[in-house]
Amino acid sequence: MNVFRSPHNPVIGPEDVKPSGDDFEVIGVFNAGVTRFEDKIILLLRVAERPINTNPDVVLAAVYDVAEKRPVIIEFSKDNPENDFSDPRLIITPTETYLTSISHLRLARSKDGINFEIDDVPTISPANDYETFGLEDPRISLIDGVYYISYVAVSPLGVTTCLISTKDFISFQHHGVIFCPENKDAVLFPGKVDGKFYALHRPVSPLFKKQEIWISESPDLHCWGNHRCLMGPHPGHWDETKIGAGAVPFKTDRGWLEIYHGVDRNNRYCLGAVLLDGREPWKIIARTNKPILEPQAGYECEGFFGNVVFSCGLLCEDDNVRIYYGAADTVICYAELSLKEIVATLDL
Q1: Rg (the chain; Cα; Å)
Q2: Architecture of domain 4-345
Q3: Which residues pair with 163 in a beta bridge?
Q4: What is the number of alpha carbons within 13 Å of residue 12 lying toward its C-beta?
Q5: CB of 6 closer than 8 Å to CB of 335
Q6: Global pTM?
Q7: What is the 3-state secondary structure (H, E, C) of 235-253?
Q8: What is the pLDDT of residues 8-67, one digit of tens each?
Q9: Can you tell me the distance from the alpha carbon of 339 to that of 341, in angstroms, rounded to the nearest whole number?
């Protein structure tokens, strides 16, 4: 697979984004939803922040306080043997799990797709009991002139998928939770298929340790049913331990093409592709046996959580698949691939 990585990579990094408050620092900008709006490319960035810490003996976490309508900071002692800090993303205590960062969503705009103007303030921030640990990984689907944004909401209540919509990226309508815990990586097909809306999503089965892609249907984008398991990890391959939907599926002359992510036994995140039937998207036509994009560059291998490429959005224009992806849970990068070459790698 020939991959063109922009020589400007990373195109957006933490240093390019202003923190939401003086007592926070931005540690990651990644996993952006992507669309075109008017004459510009829109990125809806996931911005991860953490409280500025001047005490080396503690780890800090920020939690959104719904009553106070602001984040509050909690301290965790490094000397307490019951606190587990082994995963840089988590603080695990005997009674609760916290995140070391809190995320919000922020708009960036560009005419050339490389140089972005980034808003100085958050576009969508935590606001309710389902979002107290932050908002993550937005995907943008344009349906009948409305931009629907599915995103992950995290709180002690669990990991849910929520939905908001907008026509102008100025005002937003909140539609609440559409997939209950534990569920993430939800993407909406951009329009009805044979009279129904469809979504890919990733429920988790703690008992059987399953993390697979499911497909569901809806009459109205709010109530989802007829849930079916679409596909699971591929033993012995690059996506052998868990998988999840990535960018919004797009229509080709052979069917719906979905760029998804997979994880191997070494916790290495790569991107692959699956081709779904155009009229019956719960039917798989073909799937890549090898990644189409994998961590190779330094900014993909080293960072907050290394060896990760993860996409929430792309633009497919003619034969050019323009992928915006998070690298090492730290930065936004850009790559171009040939649609013909992606299709050629499918196990047809």
Answers
A1: 19
A2: 5 Propeller (2.115)
A3: 150, 176
A4: 32
A5: yes
A6: 0.96
A7: CCCCCCCEEEECCCCEEEC
A8: 999 999 999 999 999 999 999 999 999 999 999 999 999 999 999 999 999 999 999 999
A9: 5
